[in-house]
Each structure stands twice: as structure tokens, then as C-alpha cells.
Request: fold
Amino acid sequence: MSTVDHDPGEVTPFASGDALPERFDNPGLPEHRHRLADIDATAAKRAERQVATLFGLSAVGTILTLVAYFSVKFEGHLSDNAYLSRVQLSNVLLGVGLFLALFGIGAGAVHWAKTLMPDEERIELRHDMRSSDEDRADAVAILREGSAEAGLGRRPLIRNSLIGALLLAPTPALVFLRDAGPMPGDALSVTPWKKGDKLVRDIEGGQPIKASDLQIGSVVHVMPDGLQAPGEKLEDRAKAAVLLMRLDPADLDETSSAGAYDGIVAYSKICTHMGCPVGLYEQQTHHLLCPCHQSTFDVTKNCEVIFGPAKRPLPQLAITVDDEGYLIAKDGFKQAIGPSFWER
Amino acid sequence: MASAALVLLALVVTGSLYAFAVPAKAAPAAADDVSAGKQLFLANCSTCHGLNAEGRRNAPSLVGVGAAAVDFQVGSGRMPLQASGPQAPATGKKFSDEDIRRLAAYVASLGPGPAIPAADAVDPTKGDAARGADLFRTNCAMCHNFAANGGALTHGKYAPNLNGTSPTQIYEAMLTGPQSMPVFSDTNLDPKSKQDIIAWVRTIKQAPNPGGLNLGGIGPVSEGLVGWIVGLVALVGCAVWLGAKAS
Reply:
């Protein structure tokens, strides 16, 4: 900056003649600052002891782990609570011991490197990226020669047959992918529920349910009869879960009462959003809440969505009673249960 | 003494706006539980539930709810209602056992309803905890959580955790279906099943946790929060230490 402008109306941060320099000078390394341990022998001794302590801590952790592993036993005749207490003690000791063993080594090594190992800065310049002209010419010559010797241009039969073979090779993948698994067929749209199926309780072998046994405000988790054998038909059971609720018949609107029996309604328990079990029924507000993403269905309005990400109501299972008063399905589900899919 | 306590309770219950309407006469010397209960009812409950327990807007009729409902609601301190809100919280018992018994006798006299279960029927040691676990997971766990630690419902309502809930209260809640909870009458869950469920809740609450801290036992949310906040902060701390120059 060569001149100073005294005119207060014209303030320029840079004088007009001041150009940026052609290139900046290398500022070099900042001044090396010595660590306490480099200049003070007591500090170095202290750091040495700290590192050794950390390594020693690791050794203690390792021994603790071994001792805990062999001394905390939970075999033999123990009550359930005593057994779980032993497991808890074992887990805590093993966890703490292994943590000390590994963290001690790591922390000691880092502390050692930071306080005692040399930390003088060194400069090593990168070599040029470009190869020498001779090497470049050699490489080009090799490529040219290889291409000429292969003679692709002179032997079109080989070239064309190779192209054909390469094009054909991936086609088996199409077949493999097509047959990678059975197509779902109607498995997504159809559940085991059919006309006349008894509604039975979800547990303990599935007792049928009498309509007269349900008080207003009751909830029962039900399955169709015939899926109770353990371990069998799990996919069917997964689709067939139904929630049975009894409301005051006056609370139900016309669409809900169409499939209801005296205030008892049955809806698919599989959320139409992501397929979670919708089981949180509030008997005063008649809201049915899905715990996963808070989709809320209004049972009095045929389970229409009143909140949350679900896009369609829970499908209703129309029910009635048989001659003995047991609840049965009037028909299967009229629409696919669970999350929407492309062909629904 | 009794009348002073009664006045205090009445004031808490009805609030200063209604304080003038509460005569708070001392309960007569328990000649008859029903009439004594009626006096208590008139002093403490009738402002909302009506002079004949017929119910008003936002306060249900108590005809036919039975002694079990009174014992549950008043015994857990849900009633008298502390403040209007999405749900009546359990605030601890405000009445003596004797007064609760009288109130229950009065409400039970209004219409037939479920009675308070006998001590024998709720004894957790007589239930089958393994069967109770099955029943609990099917009927209760969706709201009360697999470890009976409670969970959220819609619009600020919640299923409470069952830590401080006595066996009798668990039984009464199943029987009467308080607030948002569905009713599990004896034809739906028989008394044996109820006892099994109580046994399971007792078992799970007393079992030690084999994994160390249980973090509230409410599932992946609390575990994730602790993992992300505590674990990640520790890792960031290590990284900062690694990068810092030694002094």
C-alpha cells in the first residue's frame, strides 16, 4: 500500500495499484513447539509411568476376565433368580475385564506415541507424476504391437464369434432369476378364512368363542379353527390374525354393523401400512392403534384411518353365530389384508 | 380428626370453585356401610358423577360398575380425579381402606357388578407363571409392553407400567376394564387365568436382569438412545483425544 487516501467519502480497502503477488512464498513449517516431556526429564518420567500404568491396567483387566470366567459358575441346582443373578455378575465382570484389557493397550499406545515418541516434523517431496518420454513411447509401442499381433481386423470369424458368445452368455441368468423362487401367486391376497370357519382363541389349542361370553368392551385375539397344530402353517397363521371386539351396537355405523354380530366386530390384526399387529384397542374411544407407526383406526367407522401413515382401513371379517351360539365367519376377507402391494 | 381429613379431601377433589357446595359432614359412626358410603360419595364424588351416581358429561354412571371398580379407582388414587386430562393418573391412595370399603359397598348397592376379589384368588404364589406368560403376551403385552413396563396410546393416553400395581388391582383392572383398557370378564379370562397372569407379572418384576442395565425395559428406543448418545459421545471423545497435540 503506497498511498493513503485522506478523503473520508472514498474508502478503499485495497489501493488500486496493489496487485496480488504472482505466487505466494512457501511459509515453511510453523516453529516446532517442544512438548513438556521433551524438555523436562521429570515430565518424561511421569509420562513413562502413565503409559506403564495403562498397560498394567490392561493386564489387570485380562486377569480379571480370566478369573471371572473360571470363578463365576452358573451350573448346578440354582433357583431361577439365583441363576439369573449369576449370569448378570458374570456378564458384568467379563465386560468390564475385556474393556480394561483392550482399552488399556490402546490408550497406553496412544499416550506413548503422543508424549514420548519423536514428533519432529519432516518433509518428503512427492516425485513427478509424469513418466519419462522414453517410457511413454515404449508403452505406446507395446500396445500397437499387441493389437497388430492379435489380428482382430484380419480374422473377422474369430471377432464375430466372440461377440456372439459374449452376447449369449448372460441369457441363463434370465432363466435363473425367473425361477429363483416360487411366485407368490394369490398368497398375498388370500387368507385361510372361509365361510363357516369357527373363530377360536389364539392360544392354548384354540377354544371356540360364544358370543354370549363376551361383555361389551371385551377384546379377544382370534384365529380360524384348524391352524392350531404347533409349528405348522406358520404363514397361514401370520395372515389370519384377527382382533375381535365387542362394542355397544349403537356405536357402530352402518358399514361396520354390516359384518357385525350384536356389536361384535372382527378386523384383520395386520396393519395396512407395514404389517405390524394392530392390537392396542381403547375401549372408551374405540380407537385401534398400531404400535409401530401410530396408525390409528376408528372401530366405529369400519376401521377407517384417522391418523398415521396407513392408507386404507383394516379389512373386516364378517361374522355371525352357528346353531350353538359360537362365533363363525360369514365369509372370508373381501379384500387383501396387510400392507398394500402392486397388484392389489 | 376424621372430619378434618374429609374436608381436606373434599377441597382437593372438587377445587375451590365447588368448595361451597361440599358440606363435609362427619361420616356417621359406621352403623351401616352403605349409608356411610353414600355420605362419602355425596361429599367426594357426586360433583362429577351426580347425586345418584347417574353420571354426567365426562363422568360415567356408576350404576353396575361394582365394588371392584371402586376399589381399583379409589384404591390406586385414580379417583378422585386430580385434574381433567387425557387420562386419570394413579396418584396414590387418598382414602382409608375403611372408607374405600364403604364407598364400594354403596356403589355395589346401586346395581349388580363385579365384587372385590378374595385375597386367595389373587395370590401370585398360587398361579402358574408359565401359562400366565402365554396369556400375558397374547392379551396384555401389546399395550402394557412385554415386560409389563407400560406404553403409549393415542392422544396422551397410556397403558401404565405394572411396577406398583398390587395383585388385587391387576385382577380388578382385568375384571372392570378401567378407562381405555378393554374388559376381560370371567367368561373371557377365567379367574384361574387371571391368577396366572398375576403370577407372571410378579415373576417378571422380581427377576434380576441378566444383561446389566435394563434401561427401563421399554425396548429398542431407550437402548438406541443410550447407544447413540453415550456410546457416540465416548467415541467422539476418543477421536478428539487422538487428534489433540500433547502438551
Remarks:
- Residues 220-243 of chain B form the longest helix (24 residues).
- Chain B touches chain A through 34 residues (CB under 8 Å).
- The CA atoms of residues 224 and 231 of chain B lie 10 Å apart.
- The beta strands of chain B are 151-152, 158-159.
